[in-house]
Amino acid sequence: MLEMTKWEQIAAENVGKRNFAPGRLSGKISIVTGSAQGFGKGIAEVLYAEGASVVIADLNEALAHTVAETLGERAFAVKVDVSNEESVADMIRQTVEHFGGLDLLVSNAGVLKAGSLDEMEKRDFEFVTSINYTAFFTCVKYAQRIFKAQFKADPNWMGDVIEINSKSGLSGSNKNFAYAGGKFGGIGLVQSFAMELAPHNVKVNAICPGNYYDGPLWSDPERGLFVQYLNAGKVPGAKTIEDVKKFYLSKSLIQRGCLPTDVAKAIMYAVEQTYETGQAIPVTGGQIMLG
Length: 291
Description:
alpha/beta, 2 domains, seven-stranded parallel beta sheet, 10 helices
């Protein structure tokens, strides 16, 4: 385990010293991984608007700085490779050094590579898993040390871990097993971390969004999922990207894609309530219904 004692001490000393901007998350210091674009950016914008201080943590450092500068003085950009343990530890250290602590970790960074069993290479499977599953563990591993230090300093302090999971963590996904498998595993981590961290006043929950069709994950003209799924033949009879899009829109009872604001509202619930942990909360427009 990498050394973090100094930063644990800083966090403990500053647990009652926060920038209390107006909003429902006033005084919360948060990290959102993968927040330079897409879901993560939308989530960071809502957290900031609700009074939180926000670390824009992303591999794309230039874009992260742009987002942070656009948000304002309570936003701070950090370059992070969530698949690298030292990089994750440094993200936590920089957060504590800049803001004085940490109250909310939103593990959002994710990748997706679709393909059948015949098409998927082991290296691609391991890459997807390293970002969507293992990186969540690594982020929590270092964040929880700060959380524990703060709780020890102030037993009234409460923190949160939110994993941005997926509807594919609740139901299997044809020719998309690398992604779905990591997301299923993520919910197992959420439940297990919730058990371990509850004695330290840390709640751990997952948000399971439906598809965000307007973001780059789906709509990138070269690497987006509409293109990948068309090429992989995942949608029977689809001949164009529009055919693929219509197929997926038809799956939701509320016939539109999931938006970052939809996810942010679920995050707000998970943070504000004080009597729920270890849950996977669907935000799928009715596509996935829990029994």
